């Protein structure tokens, strides 16, 4: 199963590299695109859940790394919820 990493920029300018065990994230994000924070979190939730489900279908168990990445995204995003119009930019895919 092809895995991928994607680099993002948070509202404060800090950057993270996120992991997905599936290329499905390319269906939900575009490079050089900025997403409102809530939209980014929802897209992440959908894409990483699908990715984890694909791992479960193939190997019989969900992907702990994908679900852990989702928890990390949700936790980090919660720090920016009080900002006016917070947004996250997808910088690049790292294959």
Over the alpha carbons, how many angstroms does the gyration radius reach?
13 Å
Assign a percent range to the helix content. Answer: 40-55%
Share of residues in strands? 25-35%
How many beta-strand elements? 4
Strand order, largest beta sheet: 2-1-4-3
> Counting H and I runs of at least 4 residues, what is the number of helices?
2
Task: Write up what this structure looks like.
The chain has 95 residues and is α+β, with helices and mostly antiparallel strands. The protein has one domain. It is built from 2 helices and 4 strands; from the N terminus they run βββααβ. It has helices at 37-59, 64-78; strands spanning 4-9, 15-20, 33-36, 87-94. The protein has a 4-stranded antiparallel β-sheet with strand order 2-1-4-3. Helix 1 (37-59) packs antiparallel against helix 2 (64-78). The longest helix is centred in the middle third of the chain and has 23 residues, at 37-59. The radius of gyration is 13 Å and the shape is globular. The two termini are 12 Å apart. The mean pLDDT is 97.
Write the layout of secondary structure elements.
Layout: E1 4-9, E2 15-20, E3 33-36, H1 37-59, H2 64-78, E4 87-94
Antiparallel strand pairs: 1-2, 1-4, 3-4
Helix pairs in contact: 1-2
């Amino acid at each position: 199963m092809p895995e991928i990493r994607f680099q993002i920029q948070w509202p404060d300018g800090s950057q993270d590299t996120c992991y997905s065990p599936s290329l499905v994230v390319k269906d939900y994000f575009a490079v050089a695109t900025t997403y409102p924070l809530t939209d980014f979190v929802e897209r992440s939730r959908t894409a990483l859940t699908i990715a984890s489900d694909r791992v479960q279908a193939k190997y019989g168990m969900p992907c702990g790394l994908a679900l852990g990445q989702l928890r990390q995204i949700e936790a980090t995003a919660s720090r920016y919820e009080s900002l006016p119009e917070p947004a996250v930019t997808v910088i690049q895919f790292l294959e």
